[in-house]
Amino acid sequence: MATKQVKLMDIALARSGDKGNGSNVGVIARSPEIYAYLDKELTAARVADHFSEIALGGVTRYDLPNLNAFNFILEESLGGGGTETLITDAQGKVHGLALLHMVVKIDESLLLTIKHD
Amino acid sequence: MNTAKKMIRVANAQGFWGDSLLGPKRLVEEGPVDYLTFDYLSEITMSIMQKQRMRDPESGYARDFIKMLKMIMPQCRDKGIKLIANAAGVNAPACLAATKQALSEIGLSGVRIGIVEGDDILDRLDSLANEGEELVNMDTGAALASVKDDVISANVYIGAASIVEALQQGADIVITGRASDPSLAVAPLAYEFGWSFEDYDKIAAATVLGHIIECGPQCTGGNYTDWRDVQDFAHIGFPVVEAYEDGSFIVTKHDGTGGLINVESVTSQLLYELGDPARYLSPDCVADFTTIQMEQDGPNRVRVHGVKGLPATDSFKVSMSYANGYKILATLCIGGPDAIEKAHIVSDMVFSRMKMLGADIPAEDRFLELFGSNVLYKGIVESPDQPHEILMRLGAKGMDANKLNVMSSEIAPVLTSGPPGITGFAAGRSRASEVVGYWPALIGKDKIKTTVKVEEV
After folding, report:
1. Is the ipTM here above 0.85?
2. For B273, which of A17, A86, A101 is closest by C-beta distance?
3. Identity of the residue in B278, B381, B393 whose CB atom sits nearest the CB atom of A101
């Protein structure tokens, strides 16, 4: 089967926001088949590695198979807390798009499962 | 006795303190709605309001709400639209007085206003400590004693029950202090459909509904990954939910408004600021987000159903803020070549000069962010070697505001005594501002007694 390199953005959507001294990134797969693929590929360890210079306290993943979605908690990712920090993205608003920059290898057949309406 | 309705429409008109004033105005004009909710409060808002109240005893609530009332109340009255707002902030009496004043200014009478109080425990911290409520920091495990003298605000996230009581007493407008965000939407459903708070699945469904709409247009296409699919951001529709007695509901928006409602845009907001999806804690219930079912139900309509819930825990969450020193931030624009190298020289220069003036800032309290050198996607995308321009954000933290303010006098001199290509000082001198620390804790529900008062004006 032919594989293709794509950005996570091509196969998923995301939304992020602050959670205390950290942030959360919700990820939605663009089809149930892609959810099954990301279930194996998009591990907490891989996301932690992707955010190694941002999420300093590690990453936890929760699953919402009913919505083809995952929820990642990025610990210590706001430079010291939403109300105290001086960093620009004090609420982790762009952490969702940051995750969607990840490059993944995927079977081309899975790309065909995405519906365009 | 309220006769049970088949369907009611609940819309969120304000997603935060400072949201567009067009939200409520358009919602009452552009289509049908039965209840408008106004969600003004966040962790930081409570401390700002408490500080405003310290300066002026007549302030400390969402003044925007009063402005809004004057704008929309005549139409709400005509159409029978009820309002639920956590606008009281930390000063319910002042908010009530201003509401009455506003209604009288626009010549409305016979309006029933409900006030829900009891969330503010700032004056009770000593007695609660004596009763054994430790209020340890949920995130760090630290004891409150370490910051108790610096606490600025302390509010309990209260639930929907008291709002339901106000509606039962005929309130047209219900004003609360720190009611939890989703509870503002749980209340009208529980009231209209006569739900018991022990009907956990239905209360959980309403909590999910409240969570979806609490940030206004963030569920109707705002802040959405596939933004090119979103029509007309300027006229984006605020969310309107058609809620049914069986706990199912349809997320939609008024016809002719901009935005996009599909399963992905609603799910995006469902995931916003989420922790463990199987245990979404609210004062009203524990909602299990892994049970939610969603499907498209026509253009810009998404049906949500199947939500399961569990009984609420026996504690309320408390949100406290405390004074935690000061911070200062100055900005300068630096043109290339060698913008990054020059920024580091400028930073060292400013901190050296501060030291010469007796304001030595330890390394761990210094802050330097070079916007344009890859700040947002640090370690994720490649950083440019030679950005043509960067925004230098230089800052410091500390307990002594005067010491930090020395920085403000040593920024402009950099233009004439530092490396070339520095500009953008137009904003003028910055000043040290207070740092507000956030202290989340839990408190036994038996310690909190909310009160409901409804009066007609």
Report:
1. yes
2. A17
3. B381
